[in-house]
Amino acid sequence: MKTIIGIRREDINKWEKRVPLIPSHARELVEKHPIEIRVQPSGIRVFTDDDYRLSGITVSESLSPCTIVLALKEIPIGLLERDKVYVFFSHTAKG
Q: Is residue 57 in a domain?
């Protein structure tokens, strides 16, 4: 069974334009490994939905088929699904 990785749209901070995986790196991973990558659409992301599509990455609202979900910010508890791995980045110390 193929691993499907999802890239969550950032909606915690409406100004957040960063991404956990850029289109060219997503394409490289798909070409080198037996995985699929899906990205949620976003109107504010630094890379457009079309940038991902041109790299051969599926743009999809639903990340339900994904077994691994990447994000920058915390994921609201109500959006967490059973049997998925969530990877997001945090600032554990600032100063």
A: yes
Whether the Cβ atoms of residue 68 and residue 85 lie closer than 8 Å to each other: yes
Residue with tokens 């630094």: 46
Coil/strand/helix, residue 59: strand
Is 43 within 8 Å of 12 (Cβ atoms)? Answer: no
Domain residues for 12? 3-88
Question: Distance (Å, rounded) from C-alpha 14 to C-alpha 68?
Answer: 23
Within 2-92, where are the H helices? Answer: 23-32, 49-54
For the chain, what is the domain count? 1
**Model-level pTM?**
0.86
Q: How confident is the model at residue 76 (pLDDT cuts 50, 70, 90)?
A: confident
Give the CATH number for residue 7.
3.40.50.720
